[in-house]
Amino acid sequence: MPTFTPLHRDLTFLSPLSEARAARLVGFLTEDEPSTVLDVGCGWGELLLRVLEAAPAARGFGVDLDEDAIAGAHRHAVDRGLSDRATFEATDAREVTGTYGAVTCIGSSQIWGPSVEEAQPLDYAAALTALRSLLPRGGRLVYGEGIWSATPTPAATAPLSGRDDEFIRLGALVDLAKSHGFAVTAAHEADQDEWDVFESGFAAGYARWLVEHDADDPDADEVRTLAARQHTAYFEGYRGILGLAYLQLVAV
User: Fold this and answer.
1) If 0-12 CB within 10 Å is exposed, 13-18 middle and 19+ buried, where does residue 48 land?
2) Can you give the C-alpha Rg of the chain in angstroms?
3) Domain coordinates of the chain in residue numbers?
4) Could you give the dihedral angle defined by the CA atoms of residues 71, 143, 246 and 200, in that order, rounded to the nearest 10 degrees?
5) Each residue's pLDDT tens digit, 118-136
6) What string of DSSP letters covers 186-225?
7) Measuring CA to CA, which residue among 237, 15, 235, 238 is closest to residue 142?
8) Torsion sign across C-alpha atoms 31, 33, 34, 40
9) What is d(CA 238, CA 235) in angstroms, rounded to the nearest whole number?
10) Residue-wise over 131-140: b if at least 16 C-beta within 10 A, else e?
11) By the number of CB atoms within 10 A of the CB, which of 6, 130, 208, 211 ranks highest?
């Protein structure tokens, strides 16, 4: 099985998220100077670490099931002098209890719904319910999740769940947030450049492997297949159709 360089070598965030949008989200989360911050599905912790840098009195807790990503988050916290305020654990977010002044959850709603192997529609409602339970009234949530930016086509759904009801549109997601205990202060979605940068981060890992290994390496055909599959899925499939919404929510 080929081994690729960590995604954080080519991606700043594990989502289609630009520096400008990240700065706005961090500003929203830290405006009320929260004392505690939770990042669900934190990956290598970049967004949480930026929140802690902007809120020097806050303590942060990041959870993710990817043990390699969590190990990377620990290293990044040490490198940036934040290890005394940032805790990362490879644990199931459903086991997290308590309340937090600010929460981020980007691309992790599947935690509270059917497993992805079941290929069912994303359960936004279950995720919003669970996230609301972690916030006091007035607490802030950045909720980022997949949506349809355009009407799904068979080519777009094929590399995903294979169904056109897997996601909903932005307006419907805003309505769901309002009906699950939140006031919506802003709703926007990743633009095409953010998506292209994100998908290119995956492509870079495949390309680097192919450059660093001989063409007749036993794993080369598998890597070329993976690279071609990702290229086709994105450019001939869901590019411009699959979107990612960013909602800035306040618990009410």
Assistant:
1) buried
2) 18
3) 16-192+241-251
4) 30
5) 889 999 999 999 999 999 9
6) EEEE--HHHHHHHHHHHHHHHHHHHHHS-TT-TTHHHHHH
7) 15
8) positive
9) 7
10) bbebbeeebb
11) 130
Cα–Cα distance, 200 to 242 (Å, whole number): 16
Tokens 């990042």 belong to residue: 39
Q: Which fold has domain 16-192+241-251?
A: Rossmann fold (3.40.50)
For 4, the token pair is: 């690729």
Instruction: Give the predicted TM-score (pTM) of the model.
Output: 0.95
- DSSP H or E stretch at residue 76: helix 67-79
Q: Decide the pairing of beta strands 182-189 and 242-251.
A: antiparallel
Residue 114 clears pLDDT 90, i.e. is over it: no
Distance CA(94)–CA(65), nearest Å, equals 11
Which residues lie closer than 8 Å to 60 by C-beta, 6 or more apart? Answer: 36, 37, 38, 39, 48, 49, 51, 52, 82, 85, 86, 87
